[in-house]
Amino acid sequence: MQELFLWFWTVMLFTSIAWYFFLIFYVGAKGGAEIRRLTQSRQQRQPEKGLDK
Amino acid sequence: MHLAVLDWVIIVVYLIGCMAAGIAMRRYVRGVEDFAVAGREMDLNLGIASLAATELGLVTVMYTAQLGFTKGFAGAVIGVIMAAAMYGVGCTGFVIGPLRRAGVMTIPELFQNRFGLPVRWLAGLLVVLGGVLNMGIFLRLGGEFLVAATGMPAHWLEWVMTALLGMVLLYTVLGGMLSVLVTDYLQFIVKGMGIVVTSVLVIKAIGWSNLVHGLSAAWAATETGNTGAGLQMADHPFNPVHSTWGYVLWQIIFQIAVVTTWQTQISRVLSARDEATAKRVYRRTAFYFVGRFGLPGLWGAAALVYFYQHCGLPVGTTSLNAMPTYLGMLLPAGFIGILLAAALAAEMSTDSGYLLTWATVIYNDLISPLVKRPLSASARLFITRSLVLAIGIFLLFYGLWYEIPGNAWDYLAVTGNIYLASVFTLLVAGLYWPRANATGAFCALVLGAIGPLTFLVVNAHVDKAHQIAPEVAGASSFALAFAGMIAGSLLTPPPTRQTNHQN
Predict the structure, then answer these.
(1) B471's torsion region: left (phi>0), alpha (psi -120 to 50) or beta?
(2) Distance (Å, rounded) from C-alpha B339 to C-alpha B341?
(3) Chosen from B56, B239, B289 to mutate, greatest number of chain A CBs within 10 A
(4) Superfamily of B5-404 according to CATH
(5) ipTM value
């Protein structure tokens, strides 16, 4: 039973390291593009509504 | 100090980049909705970065490493449960679906639609009390990490953390959620690099096989009472149900409540472009929470084995700061700079997200309902920004410059539970039980608060052998809140159709 738990944690921990490594690049690339879209969208909408700041 | 020039360069570049990005977002803030929920334009990957960054602070790293030090790998079972809860909620849309569809800015705002204004106000008060008090300990624990990891003089802690909070306040006050999203994105990347690099170096230094055998040996020594001072383990290092199932069962309830009720998590749901995006953010972020507990836990477990095999804990080192002390000895120049930049990122992302969230609740649910005439957009924005600043100043004195008397962890755990138990009950009943009414909601709020406080008082006055276990205290607060909701609703007239839809 203890061996089973040890295998479980070994898989969880090494997969976590791999997942974090993957996310740095994946979310890094996709998130950067989303920030550009967000700021462009905010820039376009600003003059339309003209709310006070 | 252990820092070399390269370390300082890494840290300064990170801080300048983060501040510049955060402050630049201020030009896009036009009103409270932009400030509080980024105009509801958050997309999937930005949501993943922001949610993951906010919920993995230095305080998290400290207590999860402590779990690893005292419970080995099994301490990360909470992360596995939380990941499963997030994935389940992300698939089903349980609570978060109707919340996003409602178009509210905070959880208590939803309660006005269902239970009326007084319930919204009282729930808002509990959310703010639990949230702000919970956050009170973040700065000091984050500072303790920096002291132990860098070897900087302990009396610098207050000044360093004050400067850090000042930087966070500057960009959060100016740009609100828009700044938080962009800085969270940068902090997510820096933090991710720090965690991966540190984990690989820790495994390389201690050796995986040596780590596993060392944990087994430390547990065997604990069972026979042959460990050095401070090196006793609290439970089996691999089996999370070795002593009892109670704690794990309690964590299942607790984590479902956290992922559906904790306002800083929900603010990402409410900032999402739509319900589908919010659910996808939850599903994609779920596994990150295994590492959130598992990887700092791995560092903590490695610290235990290292000190177990090398003449015990140094003087003044405890289970809480053993991990940063170990990392300070282990990491070479350049790597400690990456770790510290990651640590600063962790502290800043959590602080900014939490400051904004609680300020939004105070404005939206405590102040706004009491204002008779509508305020201008600039006035509302000014009030919300002032609240962020006020919470920051409060935290500075409460959590950093003022020593909390007694056991702060117990106190904060109980206050956090008051909010989670009662607000979770109101959310579930309000969304899924048509018979729930305002009386039931009041009973749930009051009982959810009274229960845990009673446990706190009882535990303060009885000897350790007769104290109530945390899992019993926690589960009871949920049971009391649910009992209050059911009894209060069934013993009074049902809500009318008008009450249910009046708002």
Answers:
(1) alpha
(2) 6
(3) B239
(4) Sodium/glucose cotransporter (1.20.1730.10)
(5) 0.87
